Amino acid sequence: MGDMQRVQQICDEFERLCQIPFNDRLRDYKDAGGKIVGILYNQVAEELILAAGLLPVRLRAVGSKGDELADARFTQVNCSEVRCLYDAAARGTFDFIDGLVATNACDHIRKLYENWADVLKPPYAHLVCFPKRKGDDLQVAHLAGELTNFKTSLEEHFGVQITDEALRAAISLANEIRALQLKLDNLRAESANPPITGAQALAVHMAGTCMPRQDYKALLSELVDACEGVEGQPGQKRLVIYGGEIDSLPFMETIESQGAVVVADSLGGFGRRSEDMQVATDGDLLHNLAYAYLQGRPPEPRLHGTRAERWNYLEGIAAKAHADGFIQVHIPKCDLWSYERLMFDTEVERKGLACLDLDTEYIFTNAGQTRTRVQAFVETLTEGGR
């Protein structure tokens, strides 16, 4: 309890693991005969993959220097994350995976999956069609049917049987991990001087998608205990960050280099929106998964008719964290988050909230400009007495 040195050691380990596509924990898992399924978005129910005795790993173009090999299959109006992921796959970065799973999260992701499956031919490929509305029982039933097809596909290709017992155990493990992540986030939000930075929190989340889950749970539990009673650097402005697929530690570190600390987030891919749910372990487990992934966790712009819910959730987080301001970030050419940005700016102006809009390509190269803009924003918060 309350061990800053141990906090730093664990955060350093998480950062190391999430900065290497095929890290030593994954290599050891493969060497022991394990199989890895790469997933392209947080809408994939990883519990089914775990229940099949496989390891789900979120694919990130870690260390990417360019996207030239994507030119043959994508245009310049496709988002840079998708282009970098395809480039990395074409260069063999993800040759360690035994399968690929995606959802129709957006047109860019779907086209990435189609090109990857068609050209690069992974050993196994499956697309889960995710509803576009949070909606009603019909939407949940549709997703449950998609998950049933996914379960059958995994069983047939990998020669396994996904029993209710195995699925229940996988759901319980994922629930425990999400609860620990949420507890850590609440510690950050409720502390006057958070024990870890926003960049460290991002590394914690990303590491949870690229290592065996039992190992991750054990290390995460130790981190939560070590953070109890620990305080970080005082006197910083408290920010909440809002956006989608943000996985750049240098980007987050640049924001926090200007007298600010990210105390909370409403990020989807590697943040609070992915962890803020629990899946029921009684009754129809596939229905429970469908309900939780569609209805039971905070929505994102892709889900129609959820605008008010999205922003109420964000403002609730900010209030709990006693935030001084918001940063909304998105990757240019992302249709969904571009529209969200325009609408959110209108909401911010109407309510008189302090907000900074930041653009960043998947490969973060504009550190100087980002520092300048964040510095000016922090200064306005200080001058305004926030």
Report on the structure:
This protein is of the alpha/beta class and 386 residues long. 51% of the residues lie in helices and 11% in strands. The chain has helices at 4-18, 24-31, 46-51, 80-90, 107-120, 137-158, 164-190, 198-207, 213-227, 249-255, 272-275, 285-294, 307-320, 335-351, 367-383, and strands at 36-39, 55-58, 99-103, 125-128, 237-243, 260-267, 325-330, 355-359. A 4-stranded parallel β-sheet has the order 2-1-3-4, sandwiched between helices. The chain has a 4-stranded parallel β-sheet with strand order 6-5-7-8, sandwiched between helices. α5 links the parallel β3 and β4 (125-128). α1 packs across α8 (198-207), α4 (80-90) runs parallel beside α5 and α8 (198-207) runs antiparallel to α10 (249-255).
Keywords:
single chain; 386 residues; alpha/beta; 4-stranded parallel sheet; 15 helices
List the helices and strands and how they pair.
Blueprint (H helix, E strand, L loop, with lengths): L3 H15 L5 H8 L4 E4 L6 H6 L3 E4 L21 H11 L8 E5 L3 H14 L4 E4 L8 H22 L5 H27 L7 H10 L5 H15 L9 E7 L5 H7 L4 E8 L4 H4 L9 H10 L12 H14 L4 E6 L4 H17 L3 E5 L7 H17 L3
Parallel strand pairs: 1-2, 1-3, 3-4, 5-6, 5-7, 7-8
Helix pairs in contact: 1-8, 1-9, 4-5, 6-12, 7-9, 8-10, 10-15
The rough form would be described as globular
Please list the strands of the largest sheet in the order they lie side by side.
2-1-3-4
Query: Strand pairing plus helix content: what structural class?
Result: alpha/beta
Strand-residue fraction? 5-15%
Largest sheet: 4 strands, parallel
Radius of gyration based on Cα positions: 20 Å
Number of helices: 15
The SSE string, one letter per element, is: HHEHEHEHEHHHHEHEHHHEHEH
The count of β-strands is 8
End-to-end separation: 32 Å
**Nearest-integer average pLDDT:** 94
In helices, the fraction of residues equals 40-55%
Low-pLDDT runs: none
